[in-house]
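Late entry, evening session. Most of the bench is empty. Finally got around to the prediction I had been postponing all week. Sequence below, unchanged from the version circulated by S.P.
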Amino acid sequence: MRYCEKCRRAIHPKEETYRGLCFDCYRDYLYEKIEEMGKRKPEPEKKESFWDSIKKFFRK
């Protein structure tokens, strides 16, 4: 017999565990991860290097 690591509820078959959590706790875990992904700051734009700007200048 296995137990959920978060709520300590008994989980009988091994297939019902997800990272050691019961289905309900794992669902809550996924919701938290999705919310965190939505709150992340966008990555700053990559600045042009000196050589890239020189190449761009000569292309014109």
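Two things to note before I forget:
The mean pLDDT is 81.
Helices lie at 23-39, 50-59.
Will write this up properly tomorrow.
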